[in-house]
Structures are given as C-alpha cells and as structure tokens.
Design brief:
5-stranded mixed sheet, 9 helices, elongated
C-alpha cells in the first residue's frame, strides 16, 4: 500500500482506497507501515508565511514531524514531490472587513524567484539535501509515452550524491533524483494514472522475486537469534540518538528564531522581542491590547515599561527616541486625568543597521544617547537584549537583575 501525505487531502478523493492511504500533512501514519510514502509539497497552501520575508512557512512543524519519521524509517521508499512555480504568500496584516479585523497575507512571490528559500526550508525542516539547487526551466519528461511537465530541474545533484532517475525530452534536464530510499522529483506526477506509471517505472524492483512464506521465519539457522538481539539493541540506541538529535535540532531552530532579532523588522521582530521580554520579566504580553500606539506596555508592581520596537536599516535617529517619548507622555497624561501615579519608564528596543554584520554597525550616536537620557528613557540594541537573554539562560542574571537593568539605566544600555 502507498501513503500520500498532503496538505489538502480532498484532491485525492478519486484515488483507490485499496491502493492509497491519504494522510493530512500533520496527521501522518508510520512510514514503514507502507511500501512507498509520497510527500506532496505541491500545494500552494504550504507555501504561506505570516512573517515579513518569504523565508519560512507556517506549517514548518508538520514538516519536522515528517523529518522525524524519515529518520526513524528503515523500510519505506519516500518520494518527495516538489511544487511547480506556485505563488508564495507572506507578510500578514490586519484588514478591517465588515467591522472586524481579519488576517491577510498581502505580499506574494513566485517560487521561481524564491527557489533558494524553498530549498532552505526543505533542508531545514524536511530533508538534508546539502547544497542541492533548482533551476527554473519548463520541460517535459516522458513516462511510458506520457509527457509530464515540470517547471524546475536539478543542478549540482552529483555533488550531493544523488543519482539521476528521470530527465527531460530533448534538453536532458534532470527532473528526478534518488539517494538511498529517497526520491525527489520536480515532475507534476500527482495525477492518478501518471502517479501509477511513475511508481511502476521508477519505484519498484524490475525483477519479480519468489514470495517469502510465513513459516520460514520460524526456521532457526546458525546465529539468527544473536543477530536479532544485537539488531534490537542497536535499534534502541539508534532510536535514542535520533530522539536526542531531534530535540537538539528543535533547540537550534529556536535559537535561530531568537537570533532573528539581529536582522528582522516589523511584526516578526516584535513577536520575538516580546517573547524574550515575557520570559526575563515574567510577564504575559498576550494581555496587551494593541491600539497602534506603543508596541508594548509591561506593568510590574513597582514600574511600568512602555516600549517601542524598531527594525531599521539606518542608524538610530532622533525620531526613534522622540516617538517613544510621545507614547510615554501620552500615557502619563492619561494617568494624570485619572489621578493615578505610576513609575513609568520608556524603552526603545531597536535593531538598527539591521542589514549589516554586527561588527560593521556603528555605535549609537551621542546625540541620541543624550536625548534618551534627557527623556529618562533607555535605548536597548537588539544585540544587547540578546546578550542579556543569553546570560539569563545561563543563570548569570536573574529576572530581578534583568528588570533592574531596564529600570535604573538611561541613555543606551551597555553590559
């Protein structure tokens, strides 16, 4: 039997239920329960991301689950079907519709113009393909007299240890490659008849073998039992190491997310910065109501932090510091109207010169430092925030010490 793993299972409603088990992307069955498992990456709904850049996908955790299953698989042949030149949608925004705010991805890019990120995502979350690259060229490949289209073909596949399985008519462009039990194809094969022909031609043994009878398993020979014990012991060790590696990989991905505050901007930057602040200040930013004023408002027992989070290509500017002061003064004015007194501190968390390596970034200018100090505010560069978070993770700073760093410093924070 063959398992097809897809984002939208309804497209396979006409496929034989005797031949195929159709599983949703996040609800896969054990790969080794099947002779062949097909991973359908062709659905454009996979290629969607709420972040500001088309360099990730929302359903990456589903791919990580499949990656774990591939690592645990020892029998099944796996076919990864890459997308055609679909549209990649990204950059989530809120739009007002019928009196309600709805999420919308307002930017798009064709995969042909984003193929490096496509392979980066596959490498990171699904399968290590090394430096395997795609080229955009429309071709046709013959599969038993059927012309099957592909928008992409493979480059430098030999360098990464792959063998050629199919290539296009006339131009001889490589459209399917294989390494061990893994097959990767750019062909549009996910049509019932075409898929059957592809599997028949390229995924099954060419010669028929005598079927092994059930009773032969009970026949003992030489060192069968010892070999089975050794194999089981090794499998347990392998499984333990695989599980450790998966956890390590998840942590590396999480660390990469934290480090994104050194280059990101917009909602992506705000999300990660707030996650860090929530942890080191023991707060829950989900209760914050965004009224398109300040980016965060963190109320502790003895102090309220009001903050702006900015990602800019230029150096820190006076307007960045002044905008923070506007938010602080507006908040103080509201407190005065209500007759409330609070200890309020403005924080400007800024990822400036974000497109430059850290070593090439200029320091915050004295003008902006003095302006922040005069306002009683604090500029925190994202690299400084990341160092504080690192020290907190290492146990070198407590939550209270982190809070005091923000509370008792003005100008620019240095540690």
């Amino acid at each position: 039997m063959i398992q097809i793993i897809a984002y939208d299972t309804s497209k396979y409603n006409e496929f034989s239920k005797q031949k195929y088990k159709i599983s949703k992307l996040g609800e896969i069955q054990a790969l080794d329960d099947f002779e062949i498992c097909i991973i359908d990456l062709s659905d454009e709904n996979i290629w969607r991301y709420n972040g500001a850049q088309p360099d990730n996908i929302n359903c990456y955790k589903d791919l990580l689950t499949i990656k774990e299953s591939i690592l645990n698989s020892t029998i099944a042949r796996v076919i990864i079907v890459l997308p055609q030149n679909e549209i990649f949608s990204y950059s989530n925004v809120k739009i007002l519709k019928n009196g309600r705010y709805e999420d919308k991805l307002d930017k798009t890019i064709y995969l042909k113009d984003n193929k490096e990120n496509e392979m980066y995502i596959i490498n990171k979350y699904l399968l290590n393909t090394g430096n395997l690259r795609l080229l955009f060229e429309k071709t046709k490949t013959s599969i038993e007299d059927n012309d099957v289209e592909a928008d992409f073909n493979f480059n430098n596949y030999k360098e990464e240890g792959f063998e050629t399985i199919t290539f296009s008519k006339n131009s001889n462009k490589v459209t399917t490659i294989q390494k061990d039990r893994i097959i990767i194809t750019t062909l549009d094969i996910l049509q019932n008849q075409i898929l059957e022909l592809f599997i028949k031609s390229h995924c099954r043994e060419k010669t028929e073998k005598e079927e092994i009878p059930d009773w032969i398993i009970d026949v003992k020979f030489y060192n069968d039992e010892q070999l089975k014990e050794d194999k089981n012991s090794n499998n347990e060790k392998i499984q333990e190491l695989k599980e450790k590696n998966i956890k390590l990989e998840e942590q590396l991905i999480k660390n990469l997310e934290y480090k994104s505050i050194l280059y990101s901007t917009g909602e992506e930057l705000v999300k990660v910065v707030l996650e860090i602040l929530d942890e080191i200040l023991e707060y829950d930013s989900s209760q914050f109501v965004d009224e398109k004023k300040e980016d965060f408002l963190i109320k502790k027992e003895d102090i309220t932090f009001i903050g702006e989070i900015k990602g800019v290509s230029s150096a820190v500017a006076n307007k960045n510091v002044s905008q923070l002061d506007v938010h602080v003064q507006s908040y103080l004015d509201n407190l005065e109207k209500e007759g409330i007194e609070e200890n309020v501190k403005g924080l400007l968390i800024i990822n400036h010169q974000r497109n430059r390596p850290l070593g090439e970034r200029q320091e915050v200018h004295e003008h902006q430092i003095k302006l922040a100090a005069r306002n009683g505010a604090l500029i925190i560069e994202t690299q400084t925030l990341l160092r504080i978070f690192e020290k907190y993770k290492l146990g070198e700073l407590t939550k209270e010490e982190c809070k005091k760093l923000f509370e008792y410093n003005v100008g620019v924070l240095e540690i």
